Amino acid sequence: MTATVIVTSPEGYSAAERCALLDIAYAAVARGVDHDAPAALRLPDFSTRLRAPRATFVTLKRAGGLRGCIGSLEALRPLVEDVNANAFAAAFRDPRFPPVAAIELDGLAVCVSVLSEPEAIAAASELDLLDQLRPGVDGLILQAGHRRATFLPAVWESLPEPRAFLRQLKLKAGLAEDDWSSQTQVWRYAVEVIEGN
Fold first, then answer.
1. pLDDT for 142-169, tens place per residue?
2. pTM for this one?
């Protein structure tokens, strides 16, 4: 499988590391079809950077359309294990889609997004936040009380205007479009996106 880097964060994984992550993701889906679980990984088989704790999202597409997307916002396990678990979950646990079937494997495109450490954005108001957003660059996490949601930077492609991007993120979190309070917290992150083709 060939790896194509779409957006690069400061990490800059090597070609071999990118291919390893794509291989892990695809293998987790393929094995899940027959075994309802991803393969167990041997951490010593991977480079130090691939064993470091990182948060990821794995997106699956088929015929250009979304087929599943699941991820983590906190770096709680080694990168390779996070990709393994999220690829399996994207294929078989995304509630928006039925489980991936064996017949779909050949046409399945896999995309791994490796997240940077989220950085808090100090915003005195919604307008202040909108002025600080970097369309096409920022992934965003929004939290208000117990409600939380995120958009990966790729969402800017369909919502290029900051106000619309933020409104839709609020709706995803279960908030009203005009909801804003002093308790609202926002973080930004960058991603390194690795796509197989």
1. 999 999 999 999 999 999 999 999 999 9
2. 0.88
Q: Which CATH superfamily is domain 119-190 in?
A: Hypothetical protein ph0010; domain 2 (3.30.1490.150)
HEC letters along the chain: CCEEECCCCCCCCCHHHHHHHHHHHHHHHHHHHHHCCCCCCCHHHCCHHHHCECCEEEEEEECCEEEEEEECCCCCCEHHHHHHHHHHHHHHCCCCCCCCCHHHHHHEEEEEEEECCCEECCCCCHHHHHHHCCCCCCEEEEEECCEEEEECHHHHHCCCCHHHHHHHHHHHCCCCCCCCCCCCEEEEECEEEEEEC
pLDDT tens-digit map of 174-184: 999 989 988 89
